[in-house]
Structures are given as C-alpha cells and as structure tokens.
Amino acid sequence: MLKFIDKYYEKITWSIILLGLILLFVANDYLSLVLFLYLLIRALKSRDSIRKTLRTTPLSTMVIYAVGMIVLIIALVFIMLYSGDFIKKYNIPVFLQYIYIAVVLVGSMFLYTWLMDFLIKKWNKKRVSK
C-alpha cells in the first residue's frame, strides 16, 4: 500500500484536491473527511522525515511543541466559536467564511511557528547557561 502511495502520490493528491473543491460547493459535510484523507496521504508520503525528526528531537522540545499545540487548539476553538456567532448573526456569504477561516488558520500557523521558535531558543539558552 505504501509503495502504491509513493508511486501515485501526485495523482492521488490532485484527485483529493479536486474532490475537495467539488465537495466545497456540493456537500460541505464531507469536507472534513477529504481534508483528513489529504493530511493522511501527506503524512504517509513524509513518513521518513517525520520518523527522523521524532528521533532527533529532544523530549523537552517535543513537550514544548505539544503544549503549544494544545494552547493553539484551545485558542482557535474560542476564536471560531465567537466569530461563528458573528457570521451567523450577519449572514456572511459562504465564500467569505472560507476566506476568513483560511486567514485565521494561516495566521495561527505563523504565530505558532514564530512563538515555538522563540520558546525553543529561550529554553536552549537557559539550558546552556546552567
């Protein structure tokens, strides 16, 4: 199965993206399933680099990343819940909702990456100075 995914990765990826675009306008309920499938295929394709990164990353750094991800998810839940009420109240069109979600997700990924780099550098300075 993994050899099949490695061989036809490009075709599978483009098929999933096309399916996601079709479902975006036809059946929004199944969009999360397609997104999960896309992320699963990407993870399977990158499995060697993921394995290497997990082996070379110290446990303390992984804990910092995990706690940061949990905090990010909690913050995004609150942002989406409160902004969802606003969107529902003013009947914002669907395409603007997707643009809003994309902006929030890209912004949160940028903030998470910057903040984690900052915290890891600070943690490493603290460990080296001891």
Task: Describe the secondary structure blueprint for this structure.
Layout: H1 2-7, H2 9-26, H3 31-45, H4 47-56, H5 59-90, H6 94-129
Helix pairs in contact: 2-3, 5-6
Please characterize this protein's 3D structure.
The protein is mainly α and about 130 residues long. It is built from six helices and no strands. α5 (about 60-90) packs antiparallel against α6. It is flat. The termini are far apart. The mean pLDDT is about 90.
Distance between the termini: 49 Å
Task: Work out the number of β strands.
Answer: 0
Quick check: average pLDDT? 89
**Structural class category:** mainly alpha
Contiguous runs where pLDDT drops below 50 for at least 5 residues:
none
SSE topology string: HHHHHH
What's the Cα radius of gyration?
19 Å
Q: Based on CA inertia axes, which overall geometry fits?
A: flat
Count the DSSP helices.
Answer: 6
What does the largest sheet look like? none
